[in-house]
Amino acid sequence: MNEHFKKSFQFSIGIAVITFVLAALFSIISSILLQGVGWLAGLLIVLGIVLVGVIFDMFGIAATAADEVPFHSMAAEKVYGAKQSIVIVRNRDRFASFCNDVIGDIAGIVSGTASATVVLQIAFGFGFPENSSQHMLISITFTSIVAALTVGGKALGKFFGVHASTKIILFAGRAIAFMEQNLRIKILPSLKKKSKRNSQ
């Protein structure tokens, strides 16, 4: 019990640090991209951030829904990314936590901040004062649209995550295999054979 708590605590601390770093990077990049662009380009950037959150949420759901067995057959046939897919499924709780809680939540927060910037760009572009009723109407409308796209997109992503989990996780496994081989970055732990005790 103490060992399990220790590992969970260490993972939580690691996730918190990663979240801090990624949130800072997301905020900096979105701020740089939004500087000096029109409101239409800003709108596309916000939609892009929302899309990132939706996609990673789908990956997290797919990891929790995926079955490990099909990937063993693929690995036996030397299918590219199959071994990485097995590791993802075996570490589904951590993978889902990273995709849903880290990337998904960061995307939600950053999209909200970026939305506020785009609202100002739209209001000033049409010559509306900051505290005017027109500015407030634009803010409410734009925020509602972003929220609807986020929630609706994640609902659709959950459907595909559950019903196409094998294909989605294989895609993730291939992407990770590509990064590990070409960028020389170790993303996933090594694949270890399950002991008879663990397989029971």
UniProtKB/TrEMBL annotation:
The chain crosses the membrane at residues 12-33, 39-65, 102-124, 136-157. Keywords: Membrane, Transmembrane, Transmembrane helix. The keyword Transmembrane applies. This is CNNM transmembrane domain-containing protein.
